[in-house]
């Protein structure tokens, strides 16, 4: 029970911090902020060339106009039973709202990314979270 309460508190505190962060552009601080987080599991995680290619593709995605803020990451060296470290790269981006994320999904840059880089991963897991202030 204590873990659930602590986890809930940390999740809410994190969402509150993101929603009010001065690092986000003003539109991203609105009540309908959508967080899009994708975890990529490369087919050959030891292949530096494949990782480099995926990094290149993710860099291209960052050019999509509806993205307010983006971040490319690797598994952090942290510990804990619930921490997932099996992915190769993560792609985190913020949208003003659900509509902006839907525009992103059909943007030609995104479609080209899927076409050009999907052969590199064996799996991708997507988490979308819609935040509400208040």
UniProtKB/TrEMBL annotation:
Domain Stress-response A/B barrel: from-to ranges: 34-129
SUPFAM superfamilies associated with the record: Dimeric alpha+beta barrel (SSF54909)
Superkingdom of the organism of origin: Bacteria
Pfam families (alphabetical): Dabb
Protein name stated in the entry: Dabb family protein
The species this protein was found in: Salmonirosea aquatica
Lineage: Bacteria, Pseudomonadati, Bacteroidota, Cytophagia, Cytophagales
